[in-house]
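tool=predict chain=A
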Amino acid sequence: MKKGQIITGIVQRVDFPNKGIVRVDETLENGEHKTSYCVVKNVIPGQKISLMVKKIRKGKAEGNLMEVLEPASNQVKAPCSHFGECGGCTYLHLSYEDQASLKEEQVKKLLDGVLCRQEQPYTFLPIKHSPVSHGYRNKMEFTFGDSYKDGPLALGLHKRGSFYDILTVSDCRICDEDYRSILTATCDYFSNKGFAHYHRMQHTGFLRHLLVRKAAKTGEILVALITTSQLKTDLMPYVEMLLSLPLKGKIAGILHTVNDSLADVVQSDETHLLYGKEYITEELLGLKFKISQFSFFQTNSLGAEVLYQTAREFIGDLGKGEKTVFDLYSGTGTIAQMIAPVAKKVIGVEIVEEAVEAAKENAALNGLDNCEFIAGDVLKVLDTIEEKPDFIILDPPRDGVHPKALKKIIDYGVERLIYISCKPTSLVRDLEMFLDCGYQVEKAVPVDQFPWTANIETVCLLSKLHEAKHHVNVTVDMDELDITAAESKATYEEIKSYVAEHNDGMKVSNLYIAQVKAKYGIIERENYNKPKSDEARQPKCPKEKEEAIVWALKYFQMIPSES
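tool=predict ok
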């Protein structure tokens, strides 16, 4: 493969997140056949595609999808007319069962790669589906712009791979018809008025974003129009237009939020209430929650019930209200309030002050007086809390837990804890540290909160290992053995297969495997892979391949996991 080359290949699998591993079979000039692998996004297993190689680094190739030459056998027609052009969904051309199975495989592959270090196997449970697969989102942030440079006003989501172009997603399937009605009506209204969208390069224009939230249980809708301060206009006709729409839900509040920040984010310099109230009310597992325009809340309300019910089941019995629970990265305190009825006290820590205030208000709304919510960075706040936890729940942002904060969490030495992750690659990185510090994963389960997208939640139950109080000394005379027990665990071919499967087709030689085995004290038979003469030089195993071989040896339990 060469940069810029257009080649065809078959998609073997898709790793998280959205990394298609494409097998490319080439015939070299000398007639030899060569199999290579290239990473390509926005594909599904089984497709035959053409791709353009965009870069090759350290033997790994990445390419861009040019065309799907043959569909996968399980591929279906996407129910959304925007699919492929819009950057919102990834797997709409699979059935819901197939895309859920794909995510399940992705999570298990990542977890197995780390948890093979454990002495005791963990239990991996089948993925839990979202109760609804379409129209599940309770929040959408739409952007004003144009579908092409100097084109007509558009309102919707970014086109796939584009920073500027906006697609009016009037047929979007992940939000319900009320969102689509409000989106279309808003775009038409301001198009007829001739109002300009905000140009991020010139920093001119009025219209920036439209935020819509809708509660699944109560049907209440909150609409927030986000603009700059560059134009003064009467928005009451816009409010009247929204209130006249034939919606299934009911508009509870309409806001005008002014944002003059240069950053392309939804934030508020000032907010004006145009109609109703500044929040909506949602219900989860019998509890009520007030949600404002900036509240952190799971975007799939019905899916959140499945997620939190799973966490509650994993937690199990907390005793007779005698346990203190830490809910770290607590958001609006949803999990804390789920646990509060069976705990002595729940302490939530969240860096977003507005979310903390909402958590306090929601706890009062639900009559819970054993919840304390603290605003601040977990890394710093833990040093100020006098209580010690009996149980910890982690629900960090996508990038996971800061290593220094993770060390403090581990130092509490709680017997069990729950880790809820919305990014499995961050999860497995943090699990490495837990394993190094004497914890093991008892069980894990993916929970699909985001159907059709590449995202997936995972719930893990961890417990602390205890060293055996008694031990027996055993002496083994290695001279009596033909080969070591470690050497018998896996053949060279099995090690090669493992390395190739878990490292995008990487190839390693018997020599490299022998060098790594020798480095870690695995005895090789006499004269195995030695050079033919004392003067002969052998190539040294590259660091990248050594690391891959070490992981294989750990997987086959040929070297200790802490090596």
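The radius of gyration is 28 Å. The chain has twelve helices and 22 strands.
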